[in-house]
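pasting for ref. prot 1 ->
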Amino acid sequence: MNICVFLSAADLDERYTRPARELAELLGKGGHTLVWGGSDTGLMKVVADGVRETGGRLVGVSVAFLREWARPDADEMVFAGDLAERKALLLARADAVVVLAGGLGTLDEVTEVLELKKHGLHDKPVVLLNTAGFYDGLALQLRRMEEEGFLPVPLSGLFLLADTAADAFAHLEESVVGPR
């Protein structure tokens, strides 16, 4: 399974790195491929390290202006012309999407992926890993949009909010691979 992970390239506290590493180890041990922004810094590095160390593959999709931060030992590294192309390539290479803690870039990525799914332009599972309640505010806003008629599809069809890496991974396996 090719799993796109949207997340921060910033160095973050252990409360964010520990669950990211747990998810990475599940991906790697399962023999899956991480499709990510390609950076060798911060939380992106934590996840890539965890996948690499446990047997998974790394497919990075970066942009030219971030080339100096690209991971040198990725199995494959693609450089998009701009951020919009990068998002499209990341989604195209993925069977599923997991969103970890991140800043404006991550917020941009998750909202685009949800908008595309809302319009039926992909049917890939999307999981928000709600580490330390990080996505509580976004989930509240999305529920309000749904309750007040701004969303033509139910939220339950757009994404899963998972509290743990194990829950996120189990949802991906069930959604993409199917029940065992």
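and prot 2 ->
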Amino acid sequence: MNKETLRKNLREIPDFPKPGILFYDVTTLFKNAECLQGLIDELYEMYKDKGITKVVGIESRGFILGGALAARLGAGFVMARKPGKLPAEVLEETYAKEYGTDTIQIHKDSINEDDVVLLHDDLLATGGTMAATHRLVKQSGAKQTYINFVIELVGLNGRKAFPEDVEVTTLLQL
């Protein structure tokens, strides 16, 4: 999928969720069947030879491509969610945000030392949520991890949130 197709199908919403923020709405990428299939195809090509056994999607937009990609790769799918959303025993990680803290959780039994894990979300901004999720996956004992986003907001330097030895890929940099 070429970057121009992604840009053309990406909706920009000024002043959302608050004044001064330009929000990149990926739902327009998902509602276009050709674009959605192109995203899945491109992600599959990037990761088909990495031995991925689990894909972790971050709530909630990360569930869409994460789940589809897991199915295509023949891997399991793990949901990373906000507190109170997962019914069994969880591991959790609290992380700093611009104004306070937040917490992300995964089921304690979802990942083990034999797993090669791809973490996926729609957008890399500051990287806080993904970095916390990566720490959870490493705590679970995964033998290898990869990180992927559809879009990266380059000016926010979110890649600095991850260890240098982790491969981080994005499909579109803005």
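The mean pLDDT is 96.
The two ends are 16 Å apart (CA to CA).
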